[in-house]
Give the backbone structure.
Amino acid sequence: MYPRTLLPALLLIPILSSSMAAAPEAGYLGVAVCGECHAKERDLWRDSFHDRAMKEPTDKTVLGDFKGVQFTAHGVTSRFFKRDGRFFVRTDGPDGTLKDYPIRYTFGWYPLQQYLIEFPGGRLQSLGIAWDSRPQDQGGQRWFHLYPNEKMDHRNPLHWTAPDQTWNYQCADCHSTDLKKGYDAERHIYDTHFAEINVACEACHGPGSRHVAWAQAAIAAKASGTAPTPPAAPADPTLGLLVDLKDRDGGQWQTDPATGKPARSRPRTTQTQTETCARCHSRRGRIWDELTPGEPLHQGFRLALLSPSLYFPDGQIKDEDYEYGSFIQSRMYHQGVVCSDCHEPHSLKLKAAGNAVCTRCHQADRYDDQSHHHHTQGGTGTACVACHMPRRLYMVVDPRFDHSLRVPRPDLSDRLGTPNACNACHQDKDAAWAAAAVAGWFPDPARRGPHFGEALHAADTGAADAPARLLALAGDPGQPAIARAGALERLHEHPSPDAMLTLPRLLKDPDPLVRAAAVRYLDLTDLRTRTEQAWPLLTDPARTVRLEATRVLAPLATQTMGAELAGQLDSALQEYVAAESVNADRPEANLNLGLIALTAGEPEVAERAYREALALDPRFIPAHANLADLYRGQGREAEAQAQLRTGLTVDPESADLHHALGLSLVRAKRLDAALTDLKRATELAPTNNRYAYVYAIALDSAGHTAQALPILAAAAARDAAATELLVALVQYHAKLGQREAATAWLDKLAAVAPGDPAVEQLRGSLGQP
């Protein structure tokens, strides 16, 4: 059985220290010590973005204008000023009233600087007004709001005082070295501290004490005359460093004489450097508290996939992805390029200016030439990054380069609705014009071959062939793993009857992204299939895969099994709870803890977790919905309805809560009242076909079958492969005596589900052969 005391115990994370003083953790020595021997690297790092990631506020570090300047946004006039040598802002607080807040830290540097304000309980909040640090002739040297297009007040989840803007969770571990969040779940307070305030040497190289000990031993050996002459290879090739960032395989970048393209003399066998950078330069969630420097990313973080909210279907950045999610799509990544091939790792600057950074590997006479880029020399179109790394603005003024380093595909823009580099500049032209131009320059059709984005787009638009295309993409080892995993994620919404033919192979895929996504698909299978397929992955080397296997196997905790197997599952469940408890200060983590507890047969633990989520954020709608669902499962329907109505007082426009309340009212046999909420859910979420289907079923049950037909037809137009919608359309048209329309929908169903026995049954009900 699932251990009843496990969840509460792990949520009581101990307090780490009594203040935020930067007391170095054991093993971390600081920049001053590192710089004694590595002065060159220290000086390159000094004043870099990493150095300036976070600072105490001083006249030197604060860039914003605090000379009594006022700034108005969203109906609130804030004032920035100094008093007694300290920096202050007078702005709206958590209750909407104006108050003077001292600036506790600066955050970032260029092209914008943010400011952190300390609240009781050790919480630091990131102010929603930032300073544009660009030069004035570029539009900078001004205050601006980070959410100019939001309806913003203290009730908005993105308001600077809300949990989503809490530094301790959202920002801290990427802006400081060896950060310990120190959240006490019982008292809801933080005691966060760090080894160094900014991103210093040991943030990348790991704690330096072993390296210093190695160096001191080498010096002592040399001084005593025991060091061999000439010096032999050291016994420790990593020189005592926990993170070995050097290439030790002797690989070199060379130009292939046959193709004229760069190639590495040896295939890269490790991605330690790239994944060290990815710990912060990726859209990810942390899943482990004590991280081991140099470990693979999947041991401590869960990477965000190519979801429609973050990426365009072809993998171009839509929301901020922090480089890594784009980079691992690129051909360069798969050929062995690492971050330091382009960036000086200490100053973070490019290793050369402009196109010269690319021509360090790519022949200038071939690529930095009009015959390749087809633009007039000296124009903006000749820049490699203009075509291969198009930019998008984030945080209003911060342009980020797409690191997928892709070949422009304007031919995809018409089909997928994706942006392309050509029309980013030639905004007076359309994608067809750009596609024709590119085809004229590069007539080889292979340059416009199939793209993984076509399968992802098929799923996003509900195409009838989406399941087959997603499954083909997931099973193609020649495609980027992040795209293959994204295909499996979408397959949840578009299940394929053939999936289980391919899934066993994907569960053994070399890439943990694919394995983890394949395990998640097992949610759609029965418990026996889950057990057969997922149990071996409880001991997978990747933590992300083990956690997914644990989640889908959690129902086995209610079953009788031998002591050895029960112990293995119990250990896996403890790891899962520990992973979620890393973020016990977030409602999402507590929701996940509740879900795993309920699945494992511990409803009391689940209820406490859901309530903890709501204590952290009463606006967190999923906790209201899941708590109500728990009550429903226990036969506490009145409490379920009360919980849903409580949630609707917080967010009257929650489609999820209206839908859940409608279902609850159906179960209570209050069909007329249920129709009001079910209809409202479809109005608030007009593209949610599940809500449309349930509303249509309720309309039919209430005797309003004719009203259900246009709702179902609209949903079927959005998802041509949704068989349940097509079946309902056949049945309801037949019920109303509309045999011709019923037959037409039946033909569509037969095309989508050939060989499905339901098709023949429906034909029989219509009196057709």
About this structure: The chain is about 45% helix and 10% strand.
